[in-house]
Amino acid sequence: MNRNFKLKTFTMSFLLLVIVLIGGVIFASRFDDSQQATIDVDRNAQVIVDLSIEIEAPKETVWRIQTAIDQWPAWQKNVSQARLSGPVALGSTFEWETHGLPIISTIREVDPMKRIVWGGPAQGIEGVHVWTITPTTKGVVVHTTESWNGPPVAADPDGMRAALTSSLNAWLVDLKTTAEAQKSIAIR
Q1: Residues 6+ apart with CB under 8 A from 174
Q2: Higher pLDDT pick, 102 / 34
Q3: Helix, strand, or coil (residue 118)
Q4: Could you tell me which of 67, 76, 44 has the C-alpha nearest to residue 132?
């Protein structure tokens, strides 16, 4: 194999790991005066991806699916294992694997039914991942913002951005499909 091919293969594998490894922090959104965002993604990071999806399901269903970390492999195609060590609470950690890459993330913020933030380092990438759930008349809008920083990101910011975007889009589509399927089962 030539060196370029090996470097591209490593970069893509690393990107996929980092994508799922993804750390989270709070998406800077509007809150009432009693709630203030205390954590955000690294706004100075080399890569920041913001994505949203509308889901026609109750916020309780979406929250339950997203925060049942041990169940991620059952509905996410790219997650092969996940295990939360404790409750969904500030400081809890979870180990998970995506694309054969093991990741350990720490929950940094929880606002039940509204927002969860996690993050941590993985193979030289520091990730912060913020998820917000906003009710709508038909269900919810799920918004995810993730930042990546570190030497591997600096080596290929465009490739890393593309990999992260692809991974987060897949996560959102899987979440939508799962939540909407559970909603239709509950209606029957």
Answers
A1: 75, 76, 77
A2: 102
A3: strand
A4: 67
Number of residues assigned to the chain: 188
User: Both tokens of residue 139?
Assistant: 């269900």
**CA-CA distance, 15 to 145, in Å (whole number)?**
16
Measured between alpha carbons, how far is residue 175 from residues 47, 65, 71, 172 in Å? 23, 8, 12, 5
Answer for the pair 154, 29: CB distance below 8 angstroms, yes or no: no
| DSSP label at residue 46 | S
Tens digit of each residue's pLDDT (9 = 90 or more) over 35-64: 455 889 889 999 999 999 999 999 999 999
Q: Are 84 and 3 in contact (CB under 8 A)?
A: no
- Using alpha carbons, select from 187, 23, 49, 19 the residue that is nearest to residue 109: 23
> Per-residue pLDDT tens for 114-148?
999 999 888 888 999 999 999 999 999 999 999 99
CA dihedral 117, 121, 122, 127 (to 10 degrees): 40
Query: What letter represents residue 84's amino acid?
Result: L
Find the angle CA(5)-CA(8)-CA(9) to the nearest 5 degrees: 85
Backbone dihedral angles phi then psi of residue 72, each to the nearest 5 degrees: -50, -45
Cβ–Cβ < 8 Å for 21, 98:
yes
The type of residue at 156 is D
What tokens appear for 92 in the block?
């809890």
